[in-house]
Amino acid sequence: MRSTRTRKTAPKAAAAVAPRKKAKAFMDEEGSKIWMDPDSLSVECAICYMPFEAEVFMCKNGHAACAKCCVRINRKCWCCGKPIGDMRCRPLENVLAEMNTLCRFSKYGCTEVVKYIDKSRHEEACPRAPSGCPFDVCTYRGLLLYKHLLDEHSGAVTSVANNLRDTTRLPFDKSAPFRVLVLERAPDTGEGEGSVLLLLNGGGVLSGRSLSLVCLAGPRPEGNSDGELRYKMEVRGSEPGVLSLEGTAPRVRELEGFEAKMFLFVPDASWAPTDRVSVSIRIG
């Protein structure tokens, strides 16, 4: 007596299941494809979740960490407790050294192809990185911060001359967290248009305030090696005399967590009795 067999068919995939992401492909020198799963964390430090750079360390059990995290965890592996920070993971370092990737600001127009280990360094200085509006109530983020401030916040923006002959003077309140400044176009070189500066009022000092100048957006000026805007700031308050500071305005992507390395200390006595001082700024 013959038995009848029923052919089983594989169940159809549910329509709600999202399609799998395509792996990113790279080409080596011989033209062969090398790819990585976009969800893989194998090239990121398991502690800080930042991309590995040139040096990768491991414990004797093969658990890897970046140099900064080895110091942060007191050279004791977070996974097995073995010492970490003495042995380099050379095979992984060699793979990372040959990997190329795109800048994460490619959607804003950056076309650079960079080494994976240089990705973070490139993105910190990428000229196509968007800038966020410094005002808390505004959600703007893009490449036209200069235009956005003039169009949407013109009443809260001060125009600053961009040449050595002119000085801009403005009142500054002790309670104000910052003052937004935009550079006028320099008459000789045409430089400056599109640059946004912040005069920051730091509260991290005793018996006074720390005033500093930072650059949020704009083209890097020509004529100096570091590409940063040079300035001289003078403060006049209720006390006789002038407080002054000369330096370069560092470029800052995000204000959150930023701490100025160079600032002008303005003691409480200079703010009294009106809680206001006069600030003079000269760019160039």
From TrEMBL:
GO molecular function, one term: zinc ion binding
Regions that span the bilayer: none
Keywords: Metal-binding, Zinc, Zinc-finger
Keyword Metal-binding in annotation: yes
Domain SIAH-type: 98-154
InterPro entries according to UniProt: SINL_plant (IPR044286), Znf_RING/FYVE/PHD (IPR013083), Znf_SIAH (IPR013010)
Gene3D superfamilies: Zinc/RING finger domain, C3HC4 (zinc finger)
Function: E3 ubiquitin-protein ligase that mediates ubiquitination and subsequent proteasomal degradation of target proteins. E3 ubiquitin ligases accept ubiquitin from an E2 ubiquitin-conjugating enzyme in the form of a thioester and then directly transfers the ubiquitin to targeted substrates. It probably triggers the ubiquitin-mediated degradation of different substrates.
This protein's name: SIAH-type domain-containing protein
Organism expressing this protein natively: Urochloa decumbens
